């Protein structure tokens, strides 16, 4: 939270209240999250409230990375909290029906993919994208379930619920719930 007591530290955080947005880049293979600057939290992000969008971008999604889908998808880097209560940033992919009108409201489903590896190649924000090389990623198959919900008129938020560090297999990781809950678009 930005308050009078922490404004001195937040002055460098010029993005607060004005997150940057990247337009869709067609015919470009996505970078792995570990190599993609989009996943890096901006300076001063720790002063924002959990759930605050830090930056966004439009992306294309495809079944198995190859078969494009007629859906609208936007990725949000947002501020959340790790399992020790420290500020963290992670990504969610928000998918809307292609025929949804701007400003139209629709029910929201938060869908947690079965991430089966610690590599960032299996993060939903990467594996769901068109031209992603995520062969063997269960997430790519789960796009069928996600698009079924979208076809019913639902918006679907698919968070990288293991965070940008891929904390896979941590027993009873309370941060997973935080990364998911604060990922509400």
Mind sketching the topology for me?
Blueprint (H helix, E strand, L loop, with lengths): L6 H4 L9 E3 L30 E7 L2 E2 L3 E2 L2 E11 L5 E11 L10 E3 L13 H4 L10 H14 L3 E5 L14 H8 L4
Parallel strand pairs: 1-2, 7-8
Antiparallel strand pairs: 2-5, 3-4, 5-6, 6-8
At a glance:
It is built from 4 helices and 8 strands. The protein has helices at residues 7-10, 124-127, 138-151, 174-181, and strands spanning 20-22, 53-59, 62-63, 67-68, 71-81, 87-97, 108-110, 155-159. It starts with 6 loop residues before the first helix and ends with a helix.
In the predicted model, the low-confidence regions spanning at least 5 consecutive residues are 1-12
Q: Order of strands across the biggest sheet?
A: 1-2-5-6-8-7
Number of DSSP strand runs = 8
Give the helix level as a range of percent: 10-25%
Name given to the CATH architecture: 3-Layer(aba) Sandwich
- Rg calc: 16 Å
Structural class: alpha/beta
Our count of helices gives 4
Whole-number count of domains: 1
Order of helices and strands: HEEEEEEEHHEH
CATH topology tier name: Rossmann fold
Query: How large is the share of residues in beta strands?
Result: 15-25%
CATH class: Alpha Beta
> What would you call the shape?
globular
Tell me the distance between the termini. Answer: 18 Å
Largest sheet: 6 strands, mixed
Q: Could you tell me the mean pLDDT?
A: 80
CATH superfamily grouping: Alpha/Beta hydrolase fold, catalytic domain
């Amino acid at each position: 939270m930005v308050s009078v007591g922490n404004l001195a530290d937040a002055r460098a955080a010029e993005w607060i209240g004005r997150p940057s947005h990247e337009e869709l880049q067609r015919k470009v293979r996505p970078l792995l999250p570990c190599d993609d600057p989009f996943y890096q939290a901006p300076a001063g992000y720790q002063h924002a409230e959990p759930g605050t969008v830090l930056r966004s971008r439009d992306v294309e999604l495809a079944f198995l990375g190859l078969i494009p889908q007629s859906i609208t998808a936007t990725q949000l880097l947002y501020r959340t909290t790790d399992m020790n209560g420290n500020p963290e940033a992670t990504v969610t992919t928000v998918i809307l029906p292609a025929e949804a009108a701007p400003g139209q409201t629709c029910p929201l489903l938060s869908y947690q993919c079965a991430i089966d590896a610690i590599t960032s190649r299996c993060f939903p924000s990467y594996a769901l994208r068109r031209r992603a090389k995520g062969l063997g990623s269960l997430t790519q198959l789960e796009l069928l379930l996600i698009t079924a919900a979208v076809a019913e008129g639902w918006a679907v938020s698919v968070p990288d619920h293991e965070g940008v560090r891929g904390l896979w297999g941590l027993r009873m990781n309370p941060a997973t719930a935080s990364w998911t809950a604060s990922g509400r678009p």
